[in-house]
Amino acid sequence: MFEIFKDKSGAFRFRLKAKNGEVILASEGYTQKTNCQKGVSSVKRNAKNEDRFELKQSSNSKWFFNLKAGNGQVVGTSEMFENETNVKNGVKSVMSTAAVAETVDLSK
C-alpha cells in the first residue's frame, strides 16, 4: 500500500508498505500533493523494470537502493539492509508490490 502523508515540515511524502506493514520504499518531500501523487505513479511504472533500481553501499557498509525514473531522477529510496542479498530481496519486494498497491491519502 502507498501512503501519502505530510511530514513535520509540511512536505508531502509517500511510502510503500509491504503486506506485513514494513516500509519498503520512501520518497523525498514534495511541496504539492499532485507532485507526490505523480511520484507514486512513477514508482508504479518504473518498479516493473529491474534496471531502474540502483544498489548502493553506504559508508557504514550497509546497503540500500534507489528507484530511478526514466530520466534518471530518484523517485524512491529503500531502508538500510545488512547485506547485498537482503537489499536484492528488497528490490524484489518493491517490484512485486508497487504495481498492485492501492494508495491511501493520510494527508487530509
TrEMBL record:
Protein name per its UniProtKB record: DUF1508 domain-containing protein
InterPro entries attached to this UniProt entry: DUF1508, UPF0339_domain, YegP-like_sf
PANTHER family in the record: PTHR40606, UPF0339 PROTEIN YEGP
Residue ranges constituting the DUF1508 domain according to the UniProt record: 7-54, 59-105
Pfam family, any one: DUF1508
SUPFAM superfamilies: YegP-like
